[in-house]
Amino acid sequence: MPVSAGLHYFLHEGGGPFRPPVVLIHGEGGDQLSWPSELRRLPGYRSFTLDLPGHGKSEGPGMQSIPAYARSVVGFLSAAGLSRAVLVGQGMGGAIALTMACDFPETVAGSVLVATGARLPVASTLLENAANPSTFPLALQAWQAALCGPNTPPRIKETISKRLSVIRPTLLHGDLLACDGFDLSDRLGSIRSPALVICGTEDKLTPLRYSENLASSVPGAALQTIDDAGHLVALEQPRRLAGLLTIFLGTIPYTPGG
């Protein structure tokens, strides 16, 4: 698997030079496998699915702030020779995409904001349990319950459980701290790149009102809901999400190197 600016990534070579490259950014505690193959291998587009610092096969520690993660993705784009890209972010990844749209607008051709918000507050009990090795299992239990909706298929619940069982406590705690400290509520109006906001109707972690607020606050943003999906909408409804992404990408004006 290739590495650029210290980040491991999966590259799907699809599409021509007049279609924007796509960069998929996973959520808190995740890695590139948080995106199913329908998204990682989106037909007709060159896509880069990242492991953020300390996640998956990317080395080093994770970070504890969204701006720090955003700078790492900007560094990746530069090292990979991508002047601009469409960012697709889930949860914490959506917060990273929003931060880049505000702070590094020249790098963002568009944003797809999946199950995220302008703020991502984390319950104090969850933060405290995640910080203590003796209570970390309680944090994992609460986290899995929040990730799953009432209609999440058992096979996906099993997958989530297996992935959480091997996560480093310090990594998850750092990501939760990053989310809890994130707040772009007063800056959304400055975003000028196209945006698509997507949310599962059964999302307990970032409820629909978060996405409705984003769509009403980011100029020109569109909102799409996916019925019966929870927070991990990419795993629960990958074909539906891929279809929405493909339609949105078709609306993005893009000039190679521009």
Explain how this protein is built.
- With 258 residues, the chain is of the alpha/beta class.
- Helix content is 39%, strand content 16%.
- The protein has an eight-stranded mixed β-sheet with strand order 1-2-4-3-5-6-7-8, sandwiched between helices.
- Strand 1 (3-4) and strand 2 (7-12) form a beta hairpin.
- Helix 4 (124-131) crosses helix 5.
- The two termini are 28 Å apart.
Strands side by side in the biggest sheet: 1-2-4-3-5-6-7-8
Coarse structural class: alpha/beta
Q: The CATH topology, please?
A: Rossmann fold
Gyration radius (Cα, Å) is 17 Å
Largest beta-sheet details: 8 strands, mixed
Number of domains: 1
| Helicity level | 25-40%
Our measurement of the CA-to-CA distance between the termini, rounded to an integer number of angstroms, reads: 28 Å
CATH homologous superfamily label: Alpha/Beta hydrolase fold, catalytic domain
Q: What is the total tally of β strands?
A: 8
Task: Please outline the helices and strands.
Layout: E1 3-4, E2 7-12, E3 22-25, H1 37-40, E4 47-50, H2 66-79, E5 85-90, H3 92-103, E6 108-114, H4 124-131, H5 136-147, H6 154-165, H7 169-180, E7 195-200, H8 208-217, E8 222-226, H9 233-236, H10 238-249
Parallel strand pairs: 3-4, 3-5, 5-6, 6-7, 7-8
Antiparallel strand pairs: 1-2, 2-4
Helix pairs in contact: 2-3, 4-5
